[in-house]
Amino acid sequence: MAPITPPERPFPRLLTQTGCVDPSDATKPAAGVVPYDVGSALWSDGAEKERFFAIPDDQHIAIDGSGDMTLPPGGVTMKTFSLHGRRVETRLFVRHLDGTFAGYTYAWNDAQTDATLVDDGATVTIGGDAWTIPTRAQCMQCHTEGAGFSLGLEAPQLDHAITRGDGRRESLFASLDALGYFTPRFDAAKPL
Prior knowledge:
Blueprint: E1 21-22, E2 25-29, E3 34-36, E4 48-54, E5 61-63, E6 69-70, E7 76-83, E8 86-95, E9 101-108, E10 115-118, E11 122-126, E12 129-133, H1 136-142, H2 155-158, E13 161-163, E14 169-171, H3 172-178, E15 182-183
Parallel strand pairs: 5-15
Antiparallel strand pairs: 1-2, 3-4, 4-7, 5-6, 7-8, 8-9, 9-10, 11-12, 13-14
């Protein structure tokens, strides 16, 4: 499991201070941060996306019978958007220790060495394309209780084939489940 616990409020001003990325190279996730991808990604103006999650040690992601997942307190998802080969923003979706959820967005600097917390949204231009960075309130318009808060970290989204390092293909969901990230454990004989 991930050794990080996202900080409580006030949230760090720099992405390298969050514990979610390697402080010596913000383009890499911190140790224990798990990469994942979704089977059906939303269109985001042609941006490439990298997705990760982390949960505290000895914690699990709750999964219900329909495949909805809920991060434990201290859990975080992270998504970085890139346009024209440059990182534009990184979004963190955090379940704080008090059980509340919040979204935080970081805008990458020109040197691509770190990203700064955006308080009120912003518009940046990358390769001639305008990119809108959402406010925290805008994050919560989609990440609602009715949607299960986390949007991409859902069993149906993770249930797609990946190729393992040894060349075998298997479901990403089944692979993460076998590593013990979910509770209750997935029963392959029982459909979602």
